[in-house]
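Re-running Histidine triad (HIT) family protein to confirm reproducibility after the cluster update. Everything else is unchanged from the original entry.
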Amino acid sequence: MDCIFCKIVNGDLPSTKVLENDKVLVFQNINPEAPVHVLIIPKKHIASMNDVQEEDLALIGEMHRAAQEAAAQLGIAESGYRLINNCGPNGEQTVFHLHYHLMGGKRLGALTGISPSHT
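Result of re-run:
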């Protein structure tokens, strides 16, 4: 498999780990777009949110728990943060391994690409 996130999970590529358990890995984004910008990935390869199966639902819960823990550990839980999943080409997904971006550390701007009639 030629998945960059699977290579990080396997230790074939380096990462700056923030949090890790047997199901989930949280690590620093190498191209941060906010003062705090980490990625939350399942250790199991799932290509996108569209590929999540019934048996993966507990894993999604683990990812959300990891987001809470990482936000607290990184000092942004109280001030607020954004948790983002990009899915598919129009959602700007560039790595096809399910992941969340956890971003914070400053007041984040309004989401772009969304017309006011859809908010």
